[in-house]
Hints:
The complex is a heterodimer. Chain A is an alpha/beta fold. Chain A contains 14 helices and eight strands.
Amino acid sequence: MIGQLGSELLARRLHFVTGKGGVGKSTVAAALALLAASQGKRVLAVEFDAKGDLASAFEHGPVGFDPTPVAPGVHALSMDTEASLREYLRLNLKIPVFGRIGPVAKTFDFLASAAPGIKEILTVGKVCWEVRESIAGRSDWDVVVVDATATGHIVGELDAPRAIQELVQVGMIRSQTDWMVEILSDPAITALHVVTTPEEMPVRETIDLVGRVREQLDVPLGIVVVNRVLPELFTRAEEAQFEALRSGAPLSVLQRALGPRAIDVLDAAELAVNLRRVRAGHLAELRDEIDLPLVYVPYLFGRGSGLRIVRRVETALAEELALA
Amino acid sequence: MTGPLADLLTTKEVLVFCGSGGVGKTSVAASAALAAATRYDAKVLVLTIDPARRLADALGLDGQLGNVERRVPTELLGASGQEPKGELWAAMLDTKQSWDALVLRHAPDSETAYKILENRLYHNITARFVQSHDYIAMERLYELHASGDWDLIVIDTPPTRNAIDFVEAPARMAEFFGGRFIRWLTMPYRVGGRRGARMMTMASKPFYQIADRVLGGELLQDVAEFFLNFQTMQAGFVERANAVEALLRNRRTAFAVVTTMEAAPLHEAEAFMAELRARKFHLGALILNKLLPAVLRDPEVAAVAEAMVERADELAHAVVADSSVHDPVLTAANEASLKRVFASVGTSFANFAMVATREGELRRELGDRTPGVVIEIPELDGEVTDLDALRRIGSYL
């Protein structure tokens, strides 16, 4: 069943990955890109906010608007609205735009901040265009993975083409929103994935987001990746034994064998048990509230960040999606 | 009762808590406010931006609408038997309402104010423009401070892309209004009024031609009209923005940077501290939150944990065979299961020890790049959802 989910998922060409700040969104986006590449896809990974997290997840320095190879089968680009605008004008108006476009770009940037959807259309429009070219067999990519904006702004971002349709009655951009909406709303092409951790705020934001996406957007939801899931330490019976060990005669036996500090080891395990219990509660809430496939990535004790972590997340995703 | 944050809590009038999302900034800010209100005869306000629901409930902010300060009932403040010395109030930031109030205050007349508030671009601009949330948080802070109603205001900052954004927000707002962009954008409209909108100057012509084709002229006209009206508030905004910045730079204000020992938030905290120093803001404290206990870094204990895994068989047998042990879950029938418990406990220790060691390493790397006050708050059992939990955090401040 889940194997089908995996292959069906990677058959889609456009993946948006969102999530609350700090949950590992860029890591999961990078892992998804590697996973697609491992299945023989040619992947374009796009970072929406130019913080450089996606590129550094591949242990690569900052990348620009031109796709740069960052891993076997994966190119990455960092979104840049001015560059996107320049490309747009070059492709659509046949205006050769050399170098910086100075005041035009600045004022566009200005307008972009003011009018709903203008800035977003330059970012979402760019990836939609890449996907359209890919479908038409005119590009180097089979799959586009977007490390998208965080949960707070993703709905506004993906709603841009529709917002433009409402805002702008005439003009070139308006006429191009139709095919963008088509790509974004096609469940055979597009998926919006949410990354979360089993903690209160990320879970709440995920539940809120899924609700808002269903209410306001036509964009098909994909999977929810639950990152940093702590391993279960004990079964229920084992937990009762663990509790019994922590005082009285059993503790004395233990301390006679291992020394007085045995209690510190038991206390540390208690902390782990409590941490997991709280998180399990949030996981349960997530499971109750959301009917999307949940994919679990274990908490990785060994490393904090870097490609090693991305690789391990990729492995976990592959196992969960039965692609390994 | 004092703690490492005592100097700041007693001498400062404004404490700004900042850091990446997910580090527990809101809880730490609320804990500091609670500690101040409990320990000192002070009227303390905590201004939060987006608290977790249960924390909001604990502070009595459930279902709150608008910029209203609410007092946390005295009987909830102190631990049992402890009379709090001061008052704790809490408020949430209502961005929309704050913007509306600002427009009403600065617009030259009610007609202009109305035009701005009704403009279809207004909401969007206030929601996104020049870090509008950051600006409005700082603006609201200024207003509360200027009211003279509070001994101490503790503010939790909005989650920003970069923590430095919000300290720059007032300056950016002033720059925005004083800048040439608006003048340039609205020029054809100012020269000839709306009817003359098509008579463009040479400077703006190419832009308008392109924008017309791409966006349609109507949108452009709306935007320009909006900015024309918005510009009437320039003097008020600039003056205010300067006053807000002056407050942030004042010695009565201090910043506390909150982070966990994870790579990304820590990196951001370091960058933020450097920025604060470079801009001559007063960095009061660095708060390292959710630290794993030091015992996890103790090699002696690690050796015991290792022995527990290696000698799990022997230990399980020793426990069930001991004549002083009578617990029904620790009988010979449970020996195999007990062996797994020892293996799990020892392995879990090793796992968390690895994380704790990394934390310790990062802590050392911070070295002297930290402010005078560095506070370490351990990872607490359970979540920060009530005043008791805030008190526990407060006991480290």
